[in-house]
Amino acid sequence: MPKNADLTSHPMRSICDAWLAKIQLALKVRHEKFGSSAEECSRFYDGNTNWMWDDKYSRGTSGFLDKEGGVLPTFRVTINNVFKAVALFGPALYHQNPTVLVSPLPRDQYPPEALGIDPNDPYGMQQYELLAMEEDRDWKTQEACASVKSRYINWIQQETDKKTHARRAITEAIVAGVGYLETTVFQPPASQIVMPRSTYLSWWDVALDPDADYYEDLQCIYIRRVQPVNLAERRFGLEPGDLKGHMQSFEAQASPSAKKEARQNRNGRTFDLIEYWEVFSKNGFGDKLHDETKKEHDFDYSSLGDYCWIVVAKGIPYPLNCPTSVLAENDAEAMKAMVQWPVPYWNDQGGWPISRLTFYENPKSVWPVSLFKPAIGEMRFVNWCMSFLADKVASSCTTYVGILKAAGAQIQKQISGTSTPFTVVEIAEALGIKSINEAISFIQAPNFPGDIWKMLAEVGQEIDEKTGVTELLQGLTSHAMRSAAEANMKNERVSVRPDDMASRTEDFLSEVAVREIQAARWFCEVNDVAPCVGRMGSIIWQNYVLSQDPDEVVRGFTYRVEAGSTRKPNKQTKIAQLTELMQYMPTAFQTFISTGEVGPYNALMTEYCKANDMDPQPFLVQPPQQEGPSPEQQELQAEMEFKIAELQLKVQEMEARLGMEARAQDQELEHEREMHKLDMTAKREMLTLKKRESKAKQQATKSNGKAKAGAKR
User: Fold this and answer.
1) What domain range includes position 674?
2) pTM above the 0.70 mark?
3) For 355-404, what is each residue's pLDDT tens digit?
4) Does a structural domain hold residue 305?
5) Which end of the chain has less Cβ packing within 10 Å, N or C?
6) Pick from 210, 153, 218: which is nearest to 183 by CA?
7) Buried b vs exposed e over 323-338: b needs ≥16 C-beta within 10 Å?
8) Are 510 and 560 in contact (CB under 8 A)?
9) How would you classify residue 153: left for phi > 0, otherwise alpha for psi between -120 and 50, otherwise beta?
10) Residue 280's beta-bridge partner residues?
11) Are the CB atoms for 230 and 242 separated by under 8 Å?
12) Quick one: 615 and 633 in the same domain?
């Protein structure tokens, strides 16, 4: 398209404008249902220590001061319960990369009767055995594919630094309420291989279909990108300069109108930036959004299918991934290839390029509830109260001294000149002074009411109960346990919430593994997986994985994160369990070792030494050496084994021959039966035909006789 062309009448302008309008509506709905509380929780986590006292917040709709009046404290304190929760829950949910287990769907064996085969029918049983052999061969192939996939997925976790990105998503899920990982295809710099990579994506860069009430009802999602213009042009195959004039530079982002969006915008001093949105639609290209989108061009957008990828930017009247030249050629196939999803994640139920982690759902909303949203009111109160109490403490630390004027300026100078928080108050002279206490007096401020501290403690306990950051979770207890039963019961209760959060995290990571294998099936060739799976694995990848239907990739296998594999190993618990086991096993181990079975003992000792960070090799028991047979005995044994094998082979050949002969005889007998049946049928039909002919002749004779008799009369 010419750079100076008139863009106001572009045939795709109405579609792009409709998508941009819907994105703005999605952002508005996100702010109302989720964004405002999520932003506030994020500020509690990493905002400035005095952010809550900013006029825009404290005097706004969520604030606690009058619009114009109200006294601000000198000390502005922030009690950060959100940071405490992240520090406690985060490492417990993802301490190390998980172990991903891939397995084919289980299959059952069915008796021949279930297939309508008579066990006494040799021919039917032969077909049943062939079918069972085919099933077994297919099962082993699926197991080999699952093994290759499992090895590959666990390899790319380390190669793509999934731990860093997953921890970011988990932190945001704890703080704001939702965390995202986006699965794309990545090529490392100066490398010839490509691999799937799951990276962190902030909720600030995600908008969801504003018309959906439930997550499974979403028809489209929107992902925000901010990228240097030249890189965006390179990504979408545009000519240099095509995006000029649609840039979001550092100066533009620093403008007053953009300062309010500073949390969303990234500043760049070297390159001009462009903001664009990637739309992943499950309901067409966008011609159904508005009636006007159907009138400006005669192109049949329905030929593009339901699953479309549209990239739109403000001020650009055409999708970046579908420039005007493609539309001008009116080539439906070329256009369809450009607007398809890069990876068909849609073939999985609810499949999107992003996987989300939430801990608390809002039953009728696509946006979840933050862990701290129910406690925001209490957290505001605690910070407000603690800030004014800090001022009260500061003022109470000042000691006021009353001195009679008659005491003279010298005493005043000595008291007020010291480095102590004294404030001198002159008192008019009185008559009849008999002691120094009558000349100098210390004025004390009133003590704090105890109810204030009691109320703060109760509100703090309410926050801990709502968020689950209790003293037991922190390894603390305000009183000693009275019994082991009480300790076990409290440990059971305190682990309910962390266990549920860990289970949700494992489900989230399992979904990410499905997305990664989908992307690998779509883009990764043999050379891309060979460094991980080796030569034999590469053959399996080439012959089976790449030829699998995308639907089978998702539904023919299960992708599950091994339970507890993301958590930090509890060495103390493991040492205690192994120590207790070793106390009860010596007798059994002696029996095993005496018979040459040293495996169980060595396995237990290896685990025990690993738990204690010790080298297990010096403690392992070697199996006893058994005296071998003499060379003559070995030769005789080998000869006997050869003869036995030869005899077994002859027996098998004879059984096979007899079986074939028996089957041939059965087939011959069956053939003879069929021929006999056919012969009898033919004879019966011939006899029936002769009877019919005889009967017809008799009837004809009778008819002729009657005719002659009538003629004579």
Assistant:
1) 627-713
2) yes
3) 999 999 988 899 999 988 888 888 888 888 888 888 777 777 766 666 65
4) no
5) C
6) 153
7) bbebbeeeeeeebeeb
8) yes
9) alpha
10) 221, 309
11) no
12) no
